[in-house]
Amino acid sequence: MRFPTHLKQSEPNTAYSLAQERKKANFPGSEMDVFINGDSYSRMREKALQVIRAEPEIFDLRDFYNLSRVEKFDHAYKIELRLVQLFREKKITKDEFSAITQILGIPLPYSLSRSMFTTTLENQCNAEQKKAFLEPTLDYRIIGCYAQTEMGHGSNVRGIETTATFIEETDEFELNMPTLTATKWWIGTLGVGATHAIVMAQLYVKGKHIGVFPLIVPIRSMEDHKPFPGVHVGDIGPKFGFNTMDNGFLSLDKVRVPRFNLLQRYIQVSRDGKVTRPKGIDPRITYSTMVQVRTSIAAGMGHVLAKAVTVAVRYASVRRQFGEAGKPESPVLDYGIVQYRVIPLVAKTYALLGMAHEFREQYERCMSAIEEGDFSLLKEMHASSCGLKRWSSETAIYGVDTCRHLCGGHGFSQFSGLNEYFADNYPNIIWEGDNYMLAQQTVRYLIKTANSIACGESVGVNDTSNALTRYYNKGNRLSAAQLYTWANRSPSEIVKSKQLLLDILAYRFAVMVQQLATKVYVEKRPFEDFLVTAQTVCTAHAEFIVCLYFGKHIEKLPANSPLRPALDAMYCISALSFLTRNTGELYALPKEASVTRELIEALNTEYLNSIKAARTIAVPLVDALKVPDETLNSSLGREDGKVYEDYMARALEEPLNRDGTGDAIRKSFFDKYIGPTLKGPSGSSKL
Amino acid sequence: MRFPTHLKQSEPNTAYSLAQERKKANFPGSEMDVFINGDSYSRMREKALQVIRAEPEIFDLRDFYNLSRVEKFDHAYKIELRLVQLFREKKITKDEFSAITQILGIPLPYSLSRSMFTTTLENQCNAEQKKAFLEPTLDYRIIGCYAQTEMGHGSNVRGIETTATFIEETDEFELNMPTLTATKWWIGTLGVGATHAIVMAQLYVKGKHIGVFPLIVPIRSMEDHKPFPGVHVGDIGPKFGFNTMDNGFLSLDKVRVPRFNLLQRYIQVSRDGKVTRPKGIDPRITYSTMVQVRTSIAAGMGHVLAKAVTVAVRYASVRRQFGEAGKPESPVLDYGIVQYRVIPLVAKTYALLGMAHEFREQYERCMSAIEEGDFSLLKEMHASSCGLKRWSSETAIYGVDTCRHLCGGHGFSQFSGLNEYFADNYPNIIWEGDNYMLAQQTVRYLIKTANSIACGESVGVNDTSNALTRYYNKGNRLSAAQLYTWANRSPSEIVKSKQLLLDILAYRFAVMVQQLATKVYVEKRPFEDFLVTAQTVCTAHAEFIVCLYFGKHIEKLPANSPLRPALDAMYCISALSFLTRNTGELYALPKEASVTRELIEALNTEYLNSIKAARTIAVPLVDALKVPDETLNSSLGREDGKVYEDYMARALEEPLNRDGTGDAIRKSFFDKYIGPTLKGPSGSSKL
């Protein structure tokens, strides 16, 4: 299909407009990139870009939006194979492999083999098992998956129906899924690709139920990839997103594996059926895998939102509607209502990326302590990781949605990129603990800690307990002036002070926790009656932690760093957005705290003012995130601003339009359906 | 691909669980259907079901989730042709045609010809033009589209770049799109199907700019459907949803049409280029089309949310996780946090459907008055239609999203149905006035009315102005007791009284309007500074109107109707959800109104209690909405509760699994990619 090539955009065109915005930068973009993304991340990104730019015939995903699910798989497997080759040829490292998959921005079909399957082998194999299973997996000679969730059981792992029964006669385990609902379901990398599965099963030895444990089950032949006898396996079908992942189902009908295949780090079954649990393994260690997964989700969400704000801010700065008579129309980013929706998301992107550095350090500190046998940091780390996984995924996913809506109709086109970011990342609010469930876990820890403080018991020293202790103020050790640092300060002073904003956030969360702890521990009412309250408490806690960690990251900069003004603005806008989200929470604070109606109204007003002030540097801020065009795959968000040229070029490649195939498709529609419709009653006949 | 047929669900199975829920009904479901959907709607639905069940080879959409975009189009055109035939054979009426498309629940590719194209011809043709264009359109001998939006211009219609210039020499108009951004874009039914377009263009006659007007342009040959010379037309490519609609682009390069093709109701150009606007046409009439479209979106959103809550409630009542030891696991609907998320959405579905009856009556009253030359109702109708379109679409779309999240992982499968409801209906928050723009239109009317009242000027008598007048209370005509009817009432009394809840909603909205009016009219600050505030004011107004109208609909029932208790509960839950949405709005009310902290906390508590109480009848409530399985197209929401059997059956039909084709696809993946991966380093080579 041809389109007149002489047609240009109306002026001022989008590329020009974007260039104008870039002149407003008041900080060095590359320094900001290194600071906010981290040095190793930005170096890895550049290396990954070299690799994918060298072989566009493999890595270019421009046409992806036009492919059927099967065609997308074909392309995704092609990419996997090429990356495996480069990895084997030592042209890329394991970390660079991951960086490349992140740049490509689509789920790749072996990724569960790389992640959950590998991690579980690393954590739960003995040395012999590592040799048998882990080594070939690291080299892709085994492709594995992690089969836990069943059709009928997700959150409640203890309720799974799959069994593994020790058969002493043959020294084997027999795996069985006795019902339809026992079918493993949603298992990534299983539907088409995997040769092996780690199957979580109810373990029975000599008629006794031992608990839920993992076994390695070979499921498809290495020779022809056909499922083994008794193995029923396939793909679970199309999903909202994530369609280049072969989430699969698996039903095992009395399938036997050698006793060796039970992963033996936490459980051992001897030849004669004696069950032992190795000594020296603290059962709390099992938490640490979940903590790791959630930490990594939380830390990754900033990059998801970074894509969306890059598209939305760039497009809002070049899309013009209305304006003063006789002048060019105004970029929609000039409108307050547009700024109000997008600038806080830019701020939260920075907060997400910034806090992740500190959060990962906390995580590593906790893990190092555990290595030394010190578990004292784990509980708070577990609670924070639940709360931050929940908050980060919610913020990023619905932030992407807001960015889509911000782009108007064009946001709804696949060529915006935004719909894929939304759909592919949506599962983050559900998997690894549904966000609504996670709030309960965090808040149980919070109120327990609060109650310990109230009872004068000792609690671990950490950011959360410190804030709670402070505002419990046992024995009135602190004066009102020391507690309510914001009282007697002017609103304009408060909204510019990272510390004062953080103090209000800490106080709000501490009061909410304290009130709930009183209901549960003093009034002895069941926690289950407060699951709704737990959601808001969990959010308030996460908002405090995010600001705390983001602030700590900013403090690593020299006081005179040219990055500071922009980062401080991002911090304050984030904090104000948290405080004004539902002002009812502020109105409900105890009177002595001086969070007055006047202060609340002023916070609202100053929030709007600070958003307005940040408009100028909105494009430089998203540019500094340095999300490459390859990751964006978006007409609206292109770095060069050639929005409409790209949009039209992509439309012409739509299968319905494409020269040759498109003509044939349209002719067939006309011959079969449209022609007979137009012919009128005389042409009408039953098909 | 085979799956063991002997496998049953674990007990209690989902079909049994659903049947148990149905026993809890305390109202007659069929009566509720007729009351809430309306008599004509429910009759039309049954007729439509007869038609589609008679020809499953045409109308069964079960396989739709597995089709590529081109395959979906093929099926959609097949349906269109069959419906056109049935219509021509007089086996279905025009209304039944529409009812069938609604049951099928997918966008059909001729639908813009049936709607905007037809409506515009009806409203803007003279008699001769109706004969030439409207008659064949009604019989599908013309397939038309409405081309207004351009690549670079959506909201700002006055800014469109397409021109239509009168060429006196040949008595023609020449249409031209001089830039890339002038390309018509997003035009439904244009990309593949349309033979004609109504093109909105800047009209120039004798060098003079007249304004934006519609012209009929033939674009594709009736013989072979090829575009005419100078016409560049195609599909705009894949979208987030709505993919069986051929949204298209159109660029006209100096294309000429006869002068006759300018739609002549509001503008006439004579042979010698004299421009006249017919007398007796009130320009305000042009509002009425927009009002009609928005009214119909608002009225339709209840049916969208009805689908989602049907799926979510049914599945939540049969999906079991956790529970007391030794007992079957509990349905997740037993958990407070699940109830809190889904029951208010059931209530809002009833509110949406209920208020739509009253809203349509208001609309018809307004239109009848206009027929008589009385425009006094139009302004409020316009403001309400903007506000309700905004509120209804927002509530329905994000309600669908919540329902998806409620279904856990399985909500993310296409077989839940929920993702299609979300994606296909998402444009309702954008088109026909982006929701953020609409709030401004509504609120401008509200504050203007408020100012008139403050200045003692007369305002139209309508629901909105009545509430504003009441709470302005000029001259203190009403006592505090008359104004603040809820003061001195116990919270438990308030939350059960539809009238008292409505009074608080009215007061809240009136205060918010009054405060904003003061800023704009008294303090003379620009309205543009309050676009964020305008959003919340618009929401508060809509929430008041929704309750008012829903309440009026309930009042049509006899006092002893067995439907009343359930409907009253739906009303109160809706109202409490509106009031507790952001309690900051209540805390900020003037002190004299006695909306105390205690009352606000009690509203929160009673809101949770009323949700809990409604849990028992949740399934009967969604059953009574009578959304057929054909519309749901959902494993999780099936009327018979056979969730997992259907889910597995659908998975087996996934192209990757399907016998024959699936085997070939998987073999090709293995031969090309997976096999070489598994072979290890020796098998590695550059592709």
TrEMBL record, chains A, B:
GO BP terms in the entry: fatty acid beta-oxidation using acyl-CoA oxidase; lipid homeostasis
Major subcellular location class: other
Metabolic or biological pathway: Lipid metabolism; peroxisomal fatty acid beta-oxidation
Known catalytic reactions: a 2,3-saturated acyl-CoA + O2 = a (2E)-enoyl-CoA + H2O2
Sequence ranges assigned to domain Acyl-CoA oxidase/dehydrogenase middle in this UniProt record: 145-255
GO CC field: peroxisome
Record keywords: FAD, Fatty acid metabolism, Flavoprotein, Lipid metabolism, Oxidoreductase, Peroxisome
Pfam families: ACOX, ACOX_C_alpha1, Acyl-CoA_dh_M, Acyl-CoA_ox_N
Acyl-CoA oxidase C-terminal domain span: 500-678
MF term (GO), any: acyl-CoA oxidase activity
Start and end residues of each Acyl-coenzyme A oxidase N-terminal domain: 31-143
Source domain of life: Eukaryota
Cofactor(s) of this protein: FAD
Catalytic residues as annotated in Swiss-Prot or TrEMBL: 432 (proton acceptor)
Keyword Lipid metabolism annotated: yes
Subcellular location: Peroxisome
Chain ranges of the Acyl-CoA oxidase C-alpha1 domain: 287-447
Binding site residues for FAD: 149, 188
Family: Belongs to the acyl-CoA oxidase family.
UniProt xrefs under PANTHER family: ELECTRON TRANSPORT OXIDOREDUCTASE (PTHR10909), PEROXISOMAL ACYL-COENZYME A OXIDASE 1 (PTHR10909:SF250)
UniProt-recorded name of the protein: Acyl-coenzyme A oxidase
Taxonomic source organism: Zancudomyces culisetae (Gut fungus)
